[in-house]
Amino acid sequence: MIKFFRKIRQKLLQQNKVGSYLKYAIGEIFLLVIGILIALQINNANEAYKARQSERVVLNNLVQDLQADSLSYRENLASLVKINDLHQALYEIGVKGMNSEIENPNLIRFMIYYNPIAINNDPSIASKITSEAIRKEITTYARYLKDLDDAYLQFSDLVEKRIRVYLADKKVHQLSNWFDNKAFKTKGEISIDFIDNPDLSQLSKTPEFQQLILEASIKSKNTEFNLETVLIQNEKLKELIQKELKQ
Fold it and tell me: Which parts of the chain span the membrane according to its record (predicted)?
């Protein structure tokens, strides 16, 4: 193609057609510029396509992480409801003198397993997404997660450093129920009542333990509230991302 244009220019010069040569040269330059612009446009389109595909991968991974967190949150909420029920039962037994039933006394020393992966896996994920609406919801989700982190740490710290220590000091742990349990040793089961109902019920009548129950109830319900808030935002963010992926 270049040789073809060169021959035309040489022919025009040989024929002393300077005006035609200049017109032709200008036209050739114009065509060259148009070609460059088209090439740049195609390249930009390719780069934009690659960026969009990369963003879709990020969004798909984020949805998967949010779905995994959602399952974990729901399990944690179920556990917190049972823990709160236990606190209520101990209050009714110890303070009001009622014969409330304690289904699982071990929950008095239980901490939920809280380990979210969405956002935490990539704290800067919002910067990789072009949708302003999604970035806004990610920021909100991260803020709610921070509130949940604080609530969870307060609750787990109370259980680990105060309630468990208090129970051990009062010697309410039944060692034989733990160490001599054959099912636990062969099946790895963890639902073993090594805290007896009568001991825990009697302990709930002491003012010192009643104060611990109150504080534990406040912190566990605060954790439950923040967990519900995060779960709602989790669903909202998933729905928004899935809508974006369908476009």
Answer: 21-42
Q: Specify which residues 173 forms β-bridges with.
A: 195
> How many H-runs (helices) and E-runs (strands) does the chain carry?
8, 0
Give dist(CA 119, CA 54) in Å, integer.
17
- The C-alpha atoms of residue 115 and residue 143 are separated, in whole angstroms, by 16
Q: What is the mean pLDDT of the chain?
A: 83
- 3-class secondary structure for 75-105? HHHHHHHHHHHHHHHHHHHHCCCCCCCCCCH
Calculate helix-pair angle for 207-246, 132-158, nearest 10 degrees: 160
Q: pLDDT confidence of 14, banded at 50, 70, 90?
A: low
CA 28 to chain CA mean position, Å: 58
pLDDT tens by residue, 109-154 = 998 888 899 988 888 898 889 999 999 999 999 999 999 999 999 9
Per-domain boundaries in the chain = 2-246
CB atoms within 10 A of CB 117: 13
What angle is formed at CA 241 by the lines to CA 66 and CA 224, rounded to 5 degrees? 35
Dist CA 166 CA 156 (whole Å): 15
Could you tell me the pTM of the whole model?
A: 0.78
H/E stretch holding 13: helix 2-14
